[in-house]
What does this fold into?
Amino acid sequence: MGAATAGEIAVSVKNVGMKFGAVQAVKNASFDLPKGRFLTILGPSGSGKTTLLRMIAGFDRPTSGEIFISGRPVSAVPAHQRAIGMVFQKLALFPHMTAGENIAFPLKMRRHDARTIPEKVEKYLELVRLGGYGSRRIGELSGGQQQRVAIARALVFEPDLLLLDEPLAALDRKLREEMQLEFRRIQKELGVTTINVTHDQREALVVSDEVIVMNGGEIQQNARPIDAYRTPSNAFVANFIGVTNFIEGKVAALSTPAAVFDAHGMRLSGVAADPKLAIGGSCAGAIRAEQIRIAARGNGLVGLETVVDGHVLDCIFEGERVVYEIRVPGLGDALMRVFDHDPETHLQFSPGEEVCLGWNARDMHVFQK
Ligand SMILES: Nc1ncnc2c1ncn2[C@@H]1O[C@H](COP(=O)(O)OP(=O)(O)O)[C@@H](O)[C@H]1O
Ligand SMILES: [Mg+2]
It folds into this structure.
C-alpha cells in the first residue's frame, strides 16, 4: 500500500469470459487498473458485475481469458495467500464477537504477532472513526457503524486490493451517501487499489477515479466519471448515467464531428458520438435533462440552436430542482424531461402551459439505433 509507482498495473483483466451453461455472464472483458486507483463497475442487475468481481477475487475461474494481480495470474495463487480485502452487502461480521475482535480476526488468521494486534486494531478503528468502540458487540452498533467495522476488517491486514460488492445497497439513502464519501476518504488515505461494484450511478460518479459500465456481460465504456457522463460511448451509457431524452430519427448528413438527422419532419443537429453512424441509418439523439432550457412560448430562447414548442404535462418539485415533463408535438409527441435548477424560476410553469424548449447542438449526442 502507500504511494503507488506511476503506471504500475495492479489488476489486469485480459479477454475474460464466464459461461454458466448457456448463460454468457461476462463476455470478453479487458481492462488494466493502475495501482492505487478506485474503480467502480457500474451496471444494472444481471449485467455480470458480481461474476467479474468473483473472478478477480479468485473464487471462480474464467472460462476464457486470464486475470493478473500484480502481474501474477490469479488462479495460480491459493485463496489464503491472496492479499485481498472484501466487503459485500451481507457484511458477515461475527455477531458474538466485539468490533475489535472482528477486526483482529484476519490478523489472527494470518498469524500476525499477537503483541502487535491490539495496536493495529485501534489504528483501523480510528481510521473508520470508531475509536473507543472496540469493546462494543456487533448488535450494539448501528448499521453504519457495522459497515465501518466491516471496512476496517477488510483493510487491517493491509491487502493489495480491496473488493466491494454493493456493500451499501441495503442502507437508507442518507447513510448510503455518507458512507460513499467515507469509502472515498479511506481509499484516498490508504491508497489501496479498490474495485467497487454497484448499480447506483450516483455512487459510481461520487467515489471513483474510473468507471466501467457493463450491460449484458459486456463492458460498454471504461472512463473517468466525468467523461462517462459528458461523452457516453453509446446510447446504453447515455441512458444509464443521468437523465437523458432520446429523439429517434434517420441520419441525413455526417461531417465529423457533426451529425444531422431528420426526426418527425424536423432537421436536428448534434455531435456524431458513434463511429457506426451511416447516412440513411436509424439513429437516436441524446440530450440530458439539465442541458435543455425552458421558456414561455414565443419568448425566444435566443442563441440556442434548436428550439421546439411543447406544453407542460407535469412539474415535480424535488427541492434543489424542478423536473418538468414536456410533451413535444413537433417531435412525434415525444415526452421530454427538463431540469430547472434556478431557484428564481422554480415552478414558473404549470401543467397545461405552452412553453418552448431549446438546446445547443454540441449537447446532443447522436448514436446509432
Ligand atoms: N452461479 C451461477 N450459475 C448460473 N448463472 C449465474 C451464476 N451466477 C450468475 N449467473 C448469471 O450470470 C448473469 C450475471 O450475474 P451477476 O454477475 O450476478 O450480475 P450482477 O452482479 O451484475 O447483478 C446473470 O444472468 C445471472 O443469472
Ligand atoms: Mg451482483
Notes: The pocket of adenosine-5'-diphosphate (ligand 1) is lined by residues 20, 23, 25, 43, 45-51 (CB under 6 Å). The first helix runs from residue 49 to 57.
